[in-house]
Each structure stands twice: as structure tokens, then as C-alpha cells.
Specification:
Layout (H helix, E strand, L loop, with lengths): L17 E6 L4 H16 L4 H21 L4 E8 L2 E7 L20 H8 L2 E4 L5 E6 L5
Antiparallel strand pairs: 1-2, 2-3, 3-5, 4-5
Helix pairs in contact: 1-2, 2-3
């Protein structure tokens, strides 16, 4: 799946079930964002398999933002008609890119995981936001 650009101003579902949070680029925030996302999606009665995929995607995208971002990070999660959309803003104009990590590498697999889990994913035109959509049934 090739990432495509999508505007940050994508419209959430009609009922607006979403949250957005800004936070400093600190490794401890990765766990915080996972907990917040899990609690929000369970509150919204999202299927548990989708919740777990979304939490893993949040973990990988926020980790990338902490490592490669510039300044404050932002996480936006919302419930769509048939799934969940996750966006992480890291203010780095260099877009996230899918790469192949060496077998013994300790990092570099985050976007591969997101690519495997997500129905679709991409980077905003500015390069500062990486997004994914999860939950669509595939055949």
C-alpha cells in the first residue's frame, strides 16, 4: 500500500466522536497516549480488535514523533463510520517513510507495522502529520 497525502482538516464522523491532545516530545508520553486512546475507544464501544490495532498504531506513530519530531506533538483520534482514524502531528516537514529495517536493528519497523494494520495510511502535504485508518473489513 502506497501512502497518499490527506489534509489534516479531514472531517470526523457526523457525531464528532473524537479527541485531540498536544504534549511534549517525551518517551513517557507514548504510554500515556496508548492509555488515553484505549480508554476513549472502549468508551465509544469500538470493537476490541480495532482498539488494539489503534493502540499499537498510536504507539508507533507517537514514538516516531518523539524520535524525529520538532517541538510539541499532537494526537488526534476519531471514530469514523466504519473504523478509527489516528493522526500524529510532529511538526517535522520531512515526511515519514516506509523503510525496511535490518534483521538485527532495534528500531525502524514502526511504519511497517502501521502499514500491516491499517486500511490506509499516509502523510499530510506538509509532511508534519502521519495518519492511518483502521477497522475496515478486508477480503
Amino acid at each position: 500500500m502506497t501512502p497518499v497525502a490527506a489534509p489534516l482538516s479531514a472531517v470526523p464522523s457526523q457525531d464528532g466522536r473524537a479527541f485531540e491532545v498536544a504534549f511534549p516530545p517525551d518517551k513517557v508520553r507514548v504510554a500515556h497516549m496508548r492509555r488515553i486512546t484505549r480508554a476513549f475507544l472502549r468508551h465509544e464501544h469500538i470493537d476490541e480488535a480495532v482498539v488494539e490495532d489503534a493502540v499499537l498504531a498510536v504507539s508507533e506513530l507517537v514514538s516516531n514523533g518523539v524520535q524525529h519530531g520538532r517541538g510539541e506533538l499532537g494526537l488526534r483520534v476519531w471514530c469514523l463510520e466504519r473504523g478509527v482514524r489516528v493522526e500524529v502531528r510532529d511538526n517535522n516537514p520531512a515526511p515519514a517513510k516506509l523503510r525496511v529495517a535490518a534483521p538485527d536493528a532495534e528500531s525502524g519497523r514502526g511504519l511497517c507495522l502501521v502499514n500491516a494494520l491499517a486500511h490506509d495510511w499516509g502523510v499530510s502535504d506538509s509532511g508534519a502529520t502521519t495518519w492511518c485508518e483502521l477497522g475496515w473489513a478486508t477480503c
